[in-house]
Amino acid sequence: MESQLQHQSSPLKASMSAPPIAGFSRRSPAPAAADGRPLTLGKTSKAAFKKEGGSGSGGAMAASASSELKGPKTPDPKTLRRLAQNREAARKSRLRKKAYIQQLETGRIRLAHLEQEIQFTRAQGAFCGAGILSPDAALFNLEYERWQEAHHQVISRLRAAVEEHRPDGELQPHVDEAMSHYGVLMAHKARLVGADPLHLLSGLWKGAVEQCFLWIGGFRPSELIKVVVRHVEPLTEQQLAAVYSAQQAARQEEDALDGGLQALLRSLSDVVSSSDAPSSSQQTPPVMYHPSAAAAMAAASFMGQYGSYSNLQLAMDKLANLAIFLRQADEERMRTLHALRRMLTVRQAARCFVAVDDYFGRLRALALFWTTTRPHPAAG
Fold first, then answer.
1. Same domain, 87 and 226
2. CA 192 remoteness from chain centre
3. How far apart are CA 272 and CA 268, in angstroms?
4. What is the pLDDT at residue 27?
5. 67: pLDDT confidence band, cut at 50, 70 and 90?
6. Which residue range forms the structural domain that includes residue 178?
7. Are 91 and 221 found together in one domain?
8. Could you say which of 160, 182, 210, 364 has the lowest number of CB atoms within 10 Å?
9. In a shared domain, residues 207 and 309
10. Nearest-angstrom CA–CA distance, 86 and 92
11. How far apart are CA 172 and CA 84, in angstroms?
């Protein structure tokens, strides 16, 4: 019995001899809940941890929360500078977006105008019996449209340089670019001259109003000089004398080409109006392979009803000679542009090319205005 009592009391002694738990003394009783029951050790340790942590990390969190309630801190200069840079970048981005939208709208309007002009030109060509273009002529029309777009950009850069009053050293490359770009157009025309000179001479690749001022497939050099002089004044006496001499030389060349072209057309008219009776062997021309061979045979047969096949060949040869006059006219145009470039200063030459582009632009605008706004007669 005694041994059993000793055995039962040994655990109690061991527990009494164990070291006290942190936060509790041996004399203090275990904390009790609100209903009087003692709390468990886990809950007591959590409460003690919260109580002890009030002066540690919990205190820091409380301090930060209280500081947030008081209001945001004033940003440092580095943050303010970064925010200002972000606002400036956003403002520039909005301006670029606005400019891009305006550029797209301008391009859309120009494209609509070009489409209207092309449709009218096609309708006019079909009405005149020239609705079907040769492949060379169709390619030239496409090249001419692309040239106009590129030339507009070239002159826009030149115009901006003139309006910003840049020095002559900065104007010079823009003037040279404008001058060389006219040479690109002459190269396009030179490729078509040998294949289809009539397309250049007819002027169907230009607007309706421009065709009224067409001279052998392009502008008249003497008239161009007159337009330029109005926009580059004042000129010195030496410059005026040089301009007058260039204008006189251009007129003489124009008169010579006009006389030669008229003589060629009269000769062509004589050949076509010849009353030579065709022989039976000459009525049917030899068969030639051509993509439009059927149309060529029909035209030759129709021509054969009114003249010999030799007359037809002679007329074809005379038409081919039109290429000579077209080449000489383009050469005179380039000579005039080079002469103006030499006799004018860099700034005057820049204003010269801007004035020339404005002149042709107004002619195109007038042609578009004429075709889209003129009243049409009522049907019936």
1. no
2. 26
3. 6
4. 47
5. low
6. 133-284+292-366
7. no
8. 160
9. yes
10. 10
11. 40
**Interatomic CA distance for residues 121 and 203, integer angstroms:** 10
Stretch 243-252: mean pLDDT = 95
Q: For residue 168, how many other CB atoms are within 10 A of its CB?
A: 12
Q: Mean pLDDT over residues 175-189, rounded?
A: 95
- Entry field: residues in the chain: 380
Instruction: Please name the amino acid found at residue 380.
Output: G
35: which DSSP letter? T
Name the token pair of 70. 């008081």
C-alpha span between 183 and 205 (Å, rounded): 18
Both tokens of 304, joined, read 């054969």
Task: Please name the residue that has the structure tokens 């309708």.
Answer: 123
- Contact at 8 Å (CB) between 158 and 354? yes
232 and 104 fall within a common domain? no
Assess whether 149 and 222 both reside in one domain.
yes
Q: Tell me, yes or no, whether 221 and 326 share the same domain.
A: yes
pTM: 0.59
Is residue 359 one of the residues assigned to a domain? yes
143 located within any domain: yes
State the Cα–Cα distance between residues 299 and 285, nearest whole angstrom: 10
Q: Which two tokens stand for residue 110?
A: 């120009």
Alpha-carbon span 179 to 333, nearest angstrom: 12
Do residues 31 and 44 make contact, with C-beta atoms less than 8 angstroms apart? yes
Cα 162 to Cα 158, 171, 228: the distances in Å are 6, 7, 16
Cα(195)–Cα(293) distance, rounded to whole angstroms? 17
**Whether 182 and 325 share a structural domain:** yes
Helix 322-343, helix 237-272: angle, nearest 10: 180
Coil/strand/helix, residue 4: helix
Number of domains composing the chain: 2
Residues 192 and 292: their CA atoms lie apart, in Å, by 19
Residue closest to 335 by CA, chosen among 232, 217, 225, 188: 225
Q: How confident is the model at residue 166 (pLDDT cuts 50, 70, 90)?
A: very high
| HEC secondary structure over 27-95 | CCCCCECCCCCECCHHHHHHHHHHHHHCCCHHHHHHHHHHHHHHCCCCCCHHHHHHHHHHHHHHHHHHH
Report the alpha-carbon angle 114-116-119, nearest 5. 105
Q: Both 199 and 319 in a single domain? A: yes
